[in-house]
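Q: Joint fold for the lines below.
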Amino acid sequence: MTQTTNSGEISRIWNWRITLASAILLILVALAAVSFGPIHISFLEIIKTLCGFNHSASPQDRTVILQLRLPRVILGALVGAALATSGAVYQTVFHNPLADPYLLGAASGAGLGATIALTSTHHNLTALLPLCAFLGGVMAVLTSFFISGKFFAEPNTLLLSGIAVGSFATAIQTYLQQRHSDALRPVYSWILGDLTSASWSVVAWSSIYIAIALVILFSISKQLDGLMLSDEEAFSLGINPQRLRITAVCAATLATATAVSASGLIGFVGIVVPHLVRGVTRRVTNRSLLSIALIGAAFLVLADLGARTLLSPAELPIGVITAFVGAPFFLFVLRNRRKVDFS
Amino acid sequence: MMTSGFISISDASVRLGGREVLTDLNVQIPHGQWTCLVGPNGAGKTTLLKALLGVRPYAGSINDRGQEVFGNQNRNVAFVPQSPDIPQGMSVAEYVMLGRSKKDGWGKESSRSRTLIREILEQTSLYGMHNSYVTQLSGGEMQRALIARALAQEPELILLDEPTSALDLHHQISVLNNIELLKARGVTIISTMHDITLAAMYAQNIVVMQAGSILLSGSSDFVIHSPELRAAFDNRIDVFTLDSGRPVVIATKDGTNS
Amino acid sequence: MSLTRSSLSAIRGKAVVVAVAIATISLAMQAAPVEAATAPSRIISLSPSATEILFGIGAGKQVIAVDDNSDFPTNAPHSKLSSFTPNVEAIAALHPDLVILQSTATKASAVQAGLKKLKIAVYLETTPNTLDQAYSEFTDLGALTGHVSRAKVQIAVMKSKISSIIARAKKLTGVSIYHELDNTLYSATSSTFIGSVYKSFGVTNIADAAATADSGGYPQLTSEYVVSANPTVIFLDDGAYGESPTTVAARAGWSGLSAVTQKHIVVIPLDIADRWGPRLVDLYTFIANSLTTVASK
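A: Joint structure:
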């Protein structure tokens, strides 16, 4: 899609207008998500309530908008942004277009942490479920680093360690679940992932960690392009590839672990959204990270809207929606690439 | 514009994986000229190249304009690997544009850069496919893309690892000509080459390596006709001089002196 | 007026009667919850057992909606609300004043929190493991809906019926049972509700030997163990999944079990198997009958 302008230049590789369009899309989607639900509230009332005019809507409607729907939409946006950005970063670092945010055992570790919290006899631990999931995810990734030995920042070794750690954590988790069958339903429903437990307090702590992680990733996003080349080439272009990889993986893990502890395991977002953005813009530069975050946010908010309303009054697990919506979209984008990119 | 000075290598040794791969190297590589590293496989040519880049730790000294090169990113050095990591989904234009990150900074695309990229793409006959994906390029086209990216960097030093190995004859010459143009701008060129005839054609200096040591270094003419060159290849080469005075080096089947 | 001895004692007698009457009435009024005057009239039940209990204690008219699994009584106001995956907004859209929610529902605590924000009262129903725990739900719901005495009566009736069922069946000795949840041999120990029912009949539950394998009371047994334990009676709770005496007899290595040869395999009817409402009596009756036919052979 690069054409030349009249003055004989190659056209820009990345355009800030794309990011602006993504932001606008997110705002529209978020507005739609707050507007729809089993309780019918008129659009006008919603706008008024959001802008702070408290008189027109009934107290119940106001509570529904401000205490139920709004935190859920915001959490959905945060988690979607976190997962999509992490996925994109992992795909770059590991040179693997199929990488997802759960690659280094973060998912299995968080699942194990959640299972320990839910099956523990100390009921205080149950209230700390998000913290346990978070710690589980982070420790799994750290373990992957450690067992890679001195090759700890080499992409391929790290990948294999992640698989080993993930399998181990899953095995322990399965064992614990077998021994505590009463925790089966809560653990399973947590694994499926959903945003039902969204409240302003959850939004508060998760937004801090996700914001920190995303800011770090956005600030190194341009240099991440160097990781797509070999280490020598990257060095010649002024990058420290080892340090950059570690920073990127750590920040992405922080984002992923926070997302998982707030909303369980939501799949597909981390793989599909980066490819969606790259397919539509026909660019793989990591300058797209901000757009990827915004589109990831919009994607998940939309999926959550579907989870809440499609089979109303039952709630669909959000992982089902992300797969149903994500897969066809993905295929559509793949087929429309000018030429199939196999190498 | 002639650059003076040398890259000084004194008593430099490099260990890789517990083994000493380069032993006590001593040579001066002049700035602004083209120096070729030749020798059989395993001689350590690529390792020396990477050491000159600054990504291999070494004992001893490799000094460029008063600074040790290890970990030194103050210089504008372009590195053209033999088999590069080919990024997926990236267009040729995007790939070549990466070369500007040293000059412009990462993520910036000045108008001048974009004009320069276009010129370079035309120079390397890649302009027609600048929208194609890098993964769709043939071996030769990929090589030219690498050169294009290195040119985009406007470097002071360019290190090339077997820059012509995947090219057909026609493109070998055109790529090497493009590189030679850099010399006019005072760029120092160091390359490894299998084809010693081409090396002699373009490089002013040749360094002969074998088993991690330097057997001989000096001007091309001097080195081409030297016994050390033959020794490096176990005397399995023949050197002929054409009527025009150009040397031609070819391999022979058995190790007899000619 | 002169107070004769007899008139004094008559007055004393009447005073005592009046005092006792006042005491009784005030006691009765204290026992009656304050909510009696403001009992909820828009109840949503998201638990099949709670639905049965509500209608059993006379609160049926106060119920506006029950979940999609509540099929008894048949005249309960059915809705599409889900008992397993409740949706806060869908529930709130019906403007209830009391919601009965199973603690085993998906994200039950989050749903409860959401309803609380909307100022809707929630009763979180926990699964009982003993008969007394089941009765306490009757009491709770009676208090919440203003049918305390009705609930008490229900409990008393059930208690007496169940004790007489158990007493009549007390001739069992040396009987062991195996209660099957599915064909991968998940069973229930005596710490579960159904286990406590068997326990009250004095039979041995072969799953108790594996009690440490699962803290929830549902261990998975092995074929070998079941065969070696050779239970007298096999109760199938997986009739809905296609298990029957024929399929059990066809299992490898099971043909020699005494329960198979003597045809002591019983399928528990679906709708009394995992509810703990007024029809608990039917469950006890069914199990008692199954066990006595065994003992009589």
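Q: Anything notable?
A: Confidence is low (pLDDT under 50) at residues 338-343 of chain A. Residues 59-93 of chain A form the longest helix (35 residues).
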